[in-house]
Amino acid sequence: MKRLAILITLLLAFAGPTMAIAAEPQASLPEIEDEVMCPVCGTLLGLSHSPAAERQRVFIRKLIDQGKDKEEIKDALVAEYGGQVLAMPENRGIDVWAYAVPVIGFGLAAIGVIWAIVAWRRRRPGPDEEQTESGPSREEDERLDQDMARFDL
Amino acid sequence: MNWRTGIVVLCIAALLGFLVWGLVKKGDSSLAIGEPVPVATLPTLPEGGEGSIEDFRGQWVLLNVWASWCGPCKEESPALDRFEEANRDQIAVVGIDTKDLNGDALAFLREFNIEYPQFRDASGDYTDGELKTTGVPESFLIDPEGNLVAHYPGPFKDEAAIEAFASPALDDAASPGETEGSS
Lengths: 153, 183
Description:
The complex is a heterodimer.
Chain A: H1 2-23, H2 29-33, H3 51-65, H4 70-81, H5 96-123, H6 127-134, H7 138-150
Chain B: H1 3-27, E1 42-45, E2 50-51, E3 60-66, H2 71-87, E4 91-98, H3 102-111, E5 118-121, H4 125-130, E6 138-142, E7 148-153, H5 159-165, H6 167-174, H7 176-182
Parallel strand pairs in B: 3-4, 4-5
Antiparallel strand pairs in B: 1-2, 1-5, 3-6, 6-7
Helix pairs in contact in B: 6-7
């Protein structure tokens, strides 16, 4: 009997903290509310107080109490409502384009700006070129020399 | 016109095209009476199967879109259930649970003892996107050919309101020859 009591005490001593760790919250409602949508209102869950949003919160709280982390909870929400429940698209499958398109667009815009600057700089005449263009032509030089000679200057 | 001007014109035309398309899409806000009702394969409730309203082709269908979090859906549910029991030979009542938690939907069906066929549209893609519902509850009356006969946004007040809405189906059952001949 004494041995049994010791065994139970030992089990409780070791199993108790383990169970407590398992049920310890790994996520919080506010951080999940900022990353998922209310499927009915079309806004972030954190901004909605509709009955559907309240049910969604109850569901999330239950999973938090079960010790699920943020990703597990988001996966459970996707299983319930579909992918649209996520405020940010997932970075896999066709959703990758949501991230890729802005990057590609920014890259193309940067290339366009660089190309425009280079083209503009090429078109702008250099200091020597400017002098040559604005200076007198050979005919003008000859006429100038003739005039100078005529007036004996 | 040089190629640069051409590209600019093309971009502006594309932008205008998108704007016009967006306006046209927005204006097209509900299903037209007489048009075929879109079909989609959906999971059934309770879980474990798949189906579509196409499975009911050849019968009149009262399609009721609902959600467990919706108060008016709860209010109309007993009347809908009584109507289904009384008229199941003339018309198939079919439910679609939308944007809802699976557990909540099952609890709703148990609470109201609903036994008629149910589908689940968790994302709302079918109800919002195809049926173009504006909220819940919302009901559609579909003829045996799969065309929309009537549309009822909002909850039915009582059983009489459901009977009035479903009268084309009930009349058809009462005098099948006449209605078939007239349509």
